[in-house]
Amino acid sequence: MRSNCPFFNVLRTMGAVAVLASVAGTVSVSVAAAPQVRSIKSSPSRKAPQNKLTREMIGEAQQRLFELGYWVGEPDGKWGGASRQGLIAFQKVEGRPLTGKLTASEIQALNDANRPSPLERGSAHIEVDLKRQVLFVVDAEGIVSRILPVSTGSGKMFTLENYTQPAVTPTGRFHVYRKVAGWRESPLGLLYYPNYIVGGIAIHGNPAVPVEPASHGCIRIPMFAAGPLSEMMPIGTEVIVHDAGEITFSASHSVRQPQTQSRR
Fold it and tell me: Residues 80, 25, 72, CA angle at the centre, nearest 5°?
């Protein structure tokens, strides 16, 4: 716990608000060793303008998110889309209000937090947590190296080719059996860098990744991470989809499973 950091004393006085800008970045294709975690600190000689976070403070918050495993891009002091999605993933994991806004209380929570643990260890794989609506990239050491927010099946009924069915993302142990680079058009819409894990269910980029389940069954991820994540997931990559640790459908699926209609 580092709640006595002078940086947070400044923030409590200010009543900070979020600053929005654009952030971009990619990550290594391989899952690397976790960086050392440090506290966010500010220079004692510099004070933030009242009711505003400095660029230095935002950059330190971005660095802290990265150190905890959240996918935010390069810390540049600009609060953009990738930073917001990274904070939303953090808020989902920690059970905090899903605002995507960087505030004094969020920075305090970042400073107090630890890197989350995976459901399983033993080999590199992907985990999708339906309850918390997050995706973990787990490396061979059992460390959660990257974390993304996701939006999965809404549970609502939809009709495709005269067949009505619920929009459900199944739990289970799957493997990537088909990949498409770039965009793919499906009967339910466009998918960006889809990685198919069972039938028409894929992990793919989408411009709309709301904080709640909203898809037809696919696992939506933010656009900026779709290409790099796809590179991390070669054919045969294990994907564990669970609901608060529960895997109700545990049958193994072949990497050569035939393709069905894509969802979205």
Answer: 55
What does the block give as tokens for 255? 């990497």
Take residue 198 and report the two structure tokens written for it: 């069972």
Dist CA 233 CA 158 (whole Å): 29
pTM: 0.76
pLDDT (tens digit per residue) in 231-262: 999 999 999 999 988 886 544 443 333 344 56
Q: For 50, phi and psi rounded to 5 degrees?
A: -60, 140
φ/ψ of residue 151, rounded to 5: -135, 120
* End-to-end C-alpha distance for the chain, whole angstroms: 41
Compute the radius of gyration of the chain from its Cα atoms. 19
Whether the CB-CB separation of 6 and 14 falls below 8 Å is answered with no
Gap between the Cα atoms of 191 and 204, Å rounded = 6
Looking at CATH, the fold of the domain delimited by 125-242 is given as L,D-transpeptidase catalytic domain-like (2.40.440)
Cα 37 to chain center, whole Å? Answer: 19
CATH 1.10.101.10 maps onto the chain at 6-39+48-112
The topology under which CATH files domain 6-39+48-112 is Muramoyl-pentapeptide Carboxypeptidase; domain 1 (1.10.101)
pLDDT tens digits, 164-208: 999 999 999 999 999 999 999 988 889 999 999 999 999 999 999
The closest alpha carbon to 59, from 36, 41, 85, belongs to 41
Joined together, the tokens standing for residue 106 give 């969020």
